[in-house]
Amino acid sequence: DTGVSQDPRHKITKRGQNVTFRCDPISEHNRLYWYRQTLGQGPEFLTYFQNEAQLEKSRLLSDRFSAERPKGSFSTLEIQRTEQGDSAMYLCASSLVLADRERAFFGQGTRLTVV
Amino acid sequence: RKEVEQDPGPFNVPEGATVAFNCTYSNSASQSFFWYRQDCRKEPKLLMSVYSSGNEDGRFTAQLNRASQYISLLIRDSKLSDSATYLCVVIGSARQLTFGSGTQLTVLP
Description:
The structure holds 2 protein chains of 2 kinds.
Chain A (H helix, E strand, L loop, with lengths): L4 E3 L2 E4 L5 E6 L6 E7 L6 E7 L2 E5 L7 E4 L6 E5 L8 E11 L2 E6 L3 E5 L1
Parallel strand pairs in A: 2-11
Antiparallel strand pairs in A: 1-3, 3-8, 4-5, 4-9, 5-6, 7-8, 9-10, 9-11
Chain B lengths: L3 E3 L4 E4 L4 E7 L6 E7 L6 E6 L4 E3 L2 E6 L4 E6 L8 E8 L5 E3 L3 E6 L1
Parallel strand pairs in B: 2-11
Antiparallel strand pairs in B: 1-3, 3-8, 4-5, 4-9, 6-7, 7-8, 9-10, 9-11
C-alpha cells in the first residue's frame, strides 16, 4: 500500500498522559499536514511541513502540541498532558506541490479518546 | 466569519435526482479549490479539483466563480453510493488547505 499511513489507528489514554502519533506520507510527497476533526465538523488545520521545515502552526495548536518531521520523511504529532477536549480524529495528509498545483491525500487517521 | 462556509444540509434526495452544493470562501487571494468526499468515520478523499473554467468528471461537475467567491458541485443521476459528506476545500495565501464543515448528502432508494 503506497498511500498515507497513520499509526496507531485508535488510542485510548487517561487524562494527563502524553501520546504520540506517527504519519508516513506518500513517498516523494514534499508537503505534510496535520488536521484534527471532531464529529460534525470539517477537518481543522493544525500544522504543516514543507520537507522538514514546519512552515505554519494554527492558533489551535497549544503549547501541549508539538510536531516534527525529521529528514522530511515521516512525521510525529505529540500531545502532552492530554485533556478530554483533545479527543478527536487526528488526520495526516501529504501532497506533492508542482508548478503551484497540489493534490493532498489523507491517511485513515488516528482516533484519540481521552478518558 | 469562517474562511470557508457550506450549507450543512442534510440533503435527502431520491436516487436519480440532481443535487447541487455551494460553498463560499472569504479570502479573495485563494488560489486552489477542491471537493473532497468523506464517508462516515473515514478519512476525506479527493473527489475533484475545481478549475476556473469549470470541470466535469462523469456525473460530477464543479464550477468556480471568483467574482462572487463561491464554488459549486453538481451531482447528476445520484446513486445510493453518493451518500456521504462533501467537503469544500480552499488553499489560500497561507498555502494550507482550509476545509468547510461539510454538506451531508443522503440518497434514498
